[in-house]
Design goal:
Blueprint lengths: L3 H8 L3 H11 L5 E2 L5 E2 L2 H17 L3 H13 L11 H14 L3 H14 L2 H21 L5 H16 L13 E7 L6 H13 L3 E8 L4 H8 L1 E7 L6 H14 L4 E5 L14 E4 L4 H8 L1
Parallel strand pairs: 3-4, 3-5, 5-6, 6-7
Antiparallel strand pairs: 1-2
Helix pairs in contact: 3-4, 5-6, 5-7, 7-8
């Protein structure tokens, strides 16, 4: 569920306009918190997005767009994916759209996924599965590098949109998230960063292939107190741990979370400062470490 401020930022529609459409045309029906604040569902967001598209791209009047939407809803065919197909149907269709380099169809399938499932379900059970499938087929020479790059960039772009939605709690520790130099696989880091953003943390996301030089100054400038690092390639681990040791000496209150298949749990650091997350439930880790 999303606040009116989050919906406004996501769709680039002024909050006053959303309220006007709701009050005059009843185009969406958000629920209310105990305090009376509006909460919008994924379905509400899709409806508002569709209305805005008609106004922006087809110069349609709001009344005509609402009328057309209601007519299409009344005549809408059955859902394209029966419950028995679930995630797999969406995975197959999104995969095919990406292999065809069809951004419009890929966006349609992704929008459908978000309308059917919670965003975390979409990330973990659909988008990540599609990425793994594409990565494996690229390594086996089944698809081209162009197809792999297009698909990876598309999915990462859809994920990063959520950084704009979740509100930041300035009282919570600021996070620096990166993959060290030489590490290009960062979907796991992106998912974990979104988990922290949903908790209210400000996350400075540097992404893949990040040199360690200069990070200390950046951390001081932004008052970072938690570092999240992901590795699938174990080769940079020794250099990374030496760097972490230096950071802990200069800032003993710093906390570090290390994850990814290239990380092996060790006893080099005090477990109160450094957590090696190997397949750990993130909520469980958060409760115990934060």
């Amino acid at each position: 569920m999303y606040s009116i401020k989050q919906v406004s930022e996501l769709l680039d529609i002024p909050a006053v306009t959303i309220r006007a459409w709701e009050n005059r045309y009843k185009i969406v029906t958000p629920t209310r918190t105990e305090g009376g604040h509006r909460l919008y569902s994924n379905k509400d967001i899709e409806t508002l997005k569709w209305i805005k598209k008609q106004l922006d791209e087809h110069n349609m009047k709001i009344s005509d767009a609402v009328r057309l939407h209601r007519r299409s809803t009344e005549q809408a065919p059955a859902a394209p994916f029966p419950p028995s197909k679930g995630y797999e149907g969406l995975i197959d269709e999104l995969y095919q759209a990406l292999m065809n380099l069809d951004a419009q169809e890929a966006n349609r399938m992704t929008d459908l996924a978000f309308s059917l499932y919670d965003y975390e379900e979409v990330f973990h059970h659909i988008l990540v599965k599609v990425l793994y499938k594409i990565g494996g087929e690229w390594e086996n020479g089944i698809i081209t590098v162009g197809q792999e790059h297009f698909a990876s960039q598309f999915i990462m772009n859809r994920c990063t949109q959520f950084f704009r939605i979740f509100p930041v709690n300035p009282a919570l520790p600021k996070v620096l998230a990166f993959c060290p130099e030489g590490e290009l696989h960062h979907i796991g880091l992106m998912m974990f960063s979104l988990f922290l953003r949903k908790k209210g943390h400000e996350v400075i996301y540097l992404g893949p292939n990040t040199p360690l030089d200069g990070l200390s100054e950046l951390m001081k400038m932004k008052h970072v107190s938690l570092i999240a690092v992901s590795l699938s390639n174990p080769r940079p681990l020794d250099e990374l741990e030496n760097w972490i040791e230096e950071q802990l000496k200069s800032e003993p209150s710093l906390k570090v979370i290390l994850g990814g298949t290239g990380i092996k749990s060790q006893n080099r650091f005090d477990e109160r400062s450094v957590s090696y997350s190997i397949g750990m439930d993130w909520d469980e880790w958060y409760r115990g470490f934060m």
